[in-house]
Write a structure and sequence with these properties.
Blueprint (H helix, E strand, L loop, with lengths): L1 E4 L2 E7 L5 H4 L3 E5 L5 H26 L4 H114 L28 H10 L6 H18 L9 H13 L13 H11 L6 H15 L3
Antiparallel strand pairs: 1-2, 2-3
């Protein structure tokens, strides 16, 4: 049976009455060197089997045994006790070594995990540093582009205002010219009805935008082929959008509408042979979310128009 004495379990078995005089005790009591009931049961089972075998041999030998055989029997009993103690000590050492091994393995696994974690943190820190550098660069670029776009938009608004002023001036000049060339009414007489206008009077009209370009840009020998080509592209876009308008009909509203159309025009417009018309191209760019003309390109178009109206 098992008994818990202090912090360890003990094995206890009663010695048969016939063997008590030989062994000089009434029971066998051995410490199992463990506080685990499960381990104690396993060790007690082994001791129970060995003591049972010993008792069987001792009973068979005791009745007719000689003194020499009795001494051997006692020696066998002492060996049993020593072997039990040795077995328990070996098992305890084994358990201790297993615990040491498990503990060492646990710390090795921890060290390996810690090493991997440090490597991951290092890689992560390097990645974060690169990411932050990229963010800073992107922020600087975005700020620069914002300032540049804001400046371009301001310049573009100024050019539109100048164009509007020029258009108004042209319109006023055309009206003054028209008034100057209006036929003077004849003096009333007996043979002519009063307030009758001369039948051959003609109304003067302002030149169209293509006529202006032809007169002041295309025929100008001092203009470079590049300026003539680029101006032709700008005039072509304007005529395609609004028709060949007389210059006195190009108001500030028309200029603003032309600016909005340019900003909505795909950046690849006109670079292919089968490019669609300007209106279809704007619709397609909006539907397909294509890249549109930059502020710099739009500003260049208006600069060419400003140069054209500067001749008036």
């Amino acid at each position: 049976m098992l008994r818990l004495l202090g912090s360890h379990y003990h094995f206890r078995r009663t010695i048969p009455h016939t063997l008590r005089p030989l062994l000089g005790r009434t029971e066998i009591s051995l410490s199992l060197q463990t506080n685990s009931k499960r381990v104690a049961r396993e060790r007690a089972a082994g001791l129970y089997a060995r003591t049972g075998l010993f008792f069987s041999k001792a009973k068979a030998m005791y009745e007719d045994a000689s003194p020499e055989e009795l001494r051997k029997l006692l020696a066998h009993y002492e060996d049993l006790i020593r072997d039990t103690d040795r077995m328990i000590a070996i098992e305890e050492k084994k358990v201790s070594l297993e615990r040491t091994y498990e503990k060492a393995r646990f710390y090795l696994d921890k060290a390996h995990s810690l090493k991997q974690l440090r490597e991951f943190i290092k890689i992560s820190n390097d990645g974060i540093d690169r990411l932050m550098a990229g963010f800073k660069k992107l922020h600087a670029t975005a700020s620069k582009d914002y300032l540049r776009n804001a400046t371009e938009k301001t310049m573009l608004r100024e050019q539109i205002a100048n164009l509007s002023a020029i258009v108004v001036s042209i319109k006023n000049s055309a009206q003054e010219t028209e008034a100057a060339f209006m036929p003077v009414q004849a003096e009333p007489s007996a043979r002519m009805a009063p307030n009758k206008v001369t039948p051959n009077a003609k109304k003067t009209t302002a030149p169209t935008i293509t006529e202006m370009a032809e007169q002041f840009i295309y025929r100008d020998k001092t203009k470079s082929p590049g300026i003539i080509r680029d101006t032709g592209k700008t005039i072509g876009l304007f005529v395609e959008a609004f028709g060949d308008k007389p210059v006195d009909q190009i108001t500030g509203g028309v200029a603003g509408e032309f600016r909005d159309m340019l900003f909505a025009l795909p950046s690849t417009h006109g670079k292919h042979k089968n490019s669609p018309g300007i209106h279809d191209a704007i619709v397609r760019a909006k539907e397909q979310e294509l890249e549109t003309l930059s502020g710099k390109t739009v500003k260049n178009h208006f600069s060419r128009l400003s140069a054209l109206w500067g001749h008036l």
